[in-house]
Amino acid sequence: MVRPGECRSKFLSGRRSRMIFRCLPLFSIFMERFTISLDDPLAQEFDQMIARNGYGSRSEAVRDLIRQALEAQQAPRYASPYSVAVVSYVYNHHEKALAERLMSAQHEHHDLVTSTMHAHLDHDHCLEAVFLQGRTSAVQRFAQQSIAQSGVRHGAINLIAAETEGGRHRHGDAPGQLHSHLRPKR
Predict the structure, then answer these.
(1) CB-based burial of residue 102 (10 Å sphere; 0-12 exposed, 13-18 middle, 19+ buried)?
(2) H/E element holding 132?
């Protein structure tokens, strides 16, 4: 029996574990429980950030970070149907065929990828910048899938709203391929 001002909790295990809290007045708060793995240096930095920002627990900090990420994705920042972008990330080229997966994805999306730049940071780590253009939804999806690859770190997307410039055309009298240009929206 729960008395006024008291709460009781019950842990339900299964595919998705969750903690149920029952308090008076009668209501339930369902919380999903999940586990994440962090390497020691990242965990230490995270704990330092938690202390600096005054969070009471790691859970509070993670909930805030998730809310911020969800808000950023929901914001219709780029109402334009077209965009240009640079997605950049760092990865360890020794990690389980990661370089091969990233390159294969770029070839599969050759209609979006206009160029890549690859720099060797040290004996293990590479910095890569992938330049994209096309429909905003496709550009965002490809960029997000790239930085979500297991082993990719420090991923960032710089997305710029664009518009088509003129119609489809050729340059000069050459029988080159018809094409159009994208330029940044003003």
Answers:
(1) buried
(2) strand 125-135
Among the four given CATH numbers 3.90.226.10, 3.40.930.10, 3.40.50.150, 3.30.70.1150, the one describing domain 82-166+179-184: 3.30.70.1150
Cα(13)–Cα(18) distance, rounded to whole angstroms? 7
98: Cα separation from own chain's centroid: 17
158: tokens are 């710089």
| Structural domain 38-75, CATH architecture | Orthogonal Bundle (1.10)
CB within 8 Å of 54: residues ≥ 6 apart: none
Query: Where do the domains of the chain lie?
Result: 1-35, 38-75, 82-166+179-184
**What pTM value is reported for the model?**
0.62
User: In tens digits, what is the pLDDT along the chain, a chain of 186 residues?
Assistant: 545 555 555 555 555 555 555 544 444 457 788 888 989 999 999 999 889 888 888 888 888 888 777 766 654 555 688 999 999 999 998 888 999 999 999 999 999 999 999 999 999 999 999 999 999 999 999 999 999 988 899 999 998 888 877 666 667 776 666 677 787 776
